[in-house]
Write a structure and sequence with these properties.
single chain, 167 residues, alpha+beta, 2 domains, five-stranded antiparallel beta sheet, three-stranded antiparallel beta sheet, 34% strand
Length: 167
């Protein structure tokens, strides 16, 4: 899978995953007492055969009012090297829990947890200095991804009646 990114008709990069995983594109428009920021962050998670997960990040695309940002879902092929790449330990076994009732409860708790953290995002943006807010928002994004990769998706893979995994 590949995602092409261009800004004002100029190619920025092509994010590509040759195998199993997911690509995320996060557009942030922020106006607060700390100023205005408009940026696109593209990152991916590749699920490796040894059950580890590799996280990939491409350069942040800074934008401004009036810019045209184009995201293109592209056919298989090569992509540009990510700016950052890290590996995470093995993913949990797909059959994380046998009990569908317990699986449903875990999914509910995951949802409540991420919703609680999401409610803090606007507070972080308005109360923290920009550099600190960016650091904290990146950490929250990592937590959201971990909940999805390490808990939600494995549960949904083993209990499809409860919903579809994100990947």
């Amino acid at each position: 899978m590949r995602l092409g990114v261009s800004l004002n008709d100029e190619r920025c990069f092509i994010a590509a995953l040759p195998d199993t995983g997911m690509i995320h594109a996060n557009l942030m428009l922020q106006d607060d007492q700390h100023g205005k920021r408009r940026r696109l962050k593209v990152f991916a998670h590749r699920f490796n055969e040894d059950e580890t997960t590799t996280s990939l990040e491409w350069p942040i695309v800074e934008t401004r009012v009036g810019d045209t940002l184009h995201l293109a879902i592209m056919p298989e092929g090569p992509g540009d090297s990510p700016e950052k790449q890290t590996s995470q330990p093995k993913r949990p076994a797909a059959r994380m829990v046998e009990s569908e009732a317990l699986a449903a409860r875990l999914l509910q708790l995951c949802s409540e947890f991420t919703n609680s953290l999401e409610s803090l995002v606007s507070e972080v943006k308005t109360t923290e200095p920009p550099e600190q807010a960016e650091f904290l928002l990146d950490a929250l994004e990592s937590v959201f991804s971990s909940v999805e990769i390490q808990l939600r998706d494995p549960i949904l893979l083993s209990h499809p009646s409860l919903g579809k995994p994100s990947g």
